[in-house]
């Protein structure tokens, strides 16, 4: 079975780990779909539930950032899911997103890999050993 892994890390303003999630999503997706549709949308939905006040989403996929800033009009599945992301972001005036180099986003990538080697869905309040060295 094909699946894509996604990882999300919530850190406090000083960079300390608050929560993490790793999830494997069944399907055969392109890197853009995996980052834009799955990881961002899942992260927005996950963070939306605890109602965090100020959130900055860091993505290493520049093309996703560009599409979020661009006009709607893409009627494909990817376009519809990006529209969902924009809608969720618009509900939170203190939420924003920015592009970061992949090296800065390594925690999310390691969590995504964790979802590929473990149970399909993991949520944690303590940083897994696989990412602890990156938090120092």
Automatic annotation (TrEMBL):
The lineage of its organism: Eukaryota, Viridiplantae, Streptophyta, Embryophyta, Tracheophyta. This is RNase H type-1 domain-containing protein. GO terms for molecular function: nucleic acid binding; RNA-DNA hybrid ribonuclease activity. Transmembrane segments: none annotated. PANTHER family: BNAC02G40300D PROTEIN, POLYNUCLEOTIDYL TRANSFERASE, RIBONUCLEASE H-LIKE SUPERFAMILY PROTEIN. It comes from the Eukaryota. Gene3D superfamilies: Ribonuclease H-like superfamily/Ribonuclease H. Residues 5-113 form the RNase H type-1 domain.
């Amino acid at each position: 079975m094909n699946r894509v892994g996604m990882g999300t890390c919530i850190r406090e303003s000083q960079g300390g780990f608050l929560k993490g999630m790793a999830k494997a999503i069944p399907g055969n997706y392109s890197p853009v779909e995996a980052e834009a549709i799955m990881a961002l949308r899942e992260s927005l939905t996950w963070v939306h539930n605890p109602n965090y006040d100020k959130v900055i989403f860091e993505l290493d996929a520049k093309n996703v950032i560009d599409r979020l800033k661009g006009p709607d009009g893409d009627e494909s599945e990817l376009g519809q899911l990006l529209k969902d992301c924009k809608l969720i972001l618009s509900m939170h005036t203190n939420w924003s997103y920015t592009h970061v180099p992949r090296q800065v986003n390594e925690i999310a990538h390691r969590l995504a890999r964790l979802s590929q080697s473990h149970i399909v869905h993991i949520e944690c309040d303590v940083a897994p050993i696989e990412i602890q060295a990156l938090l120092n």
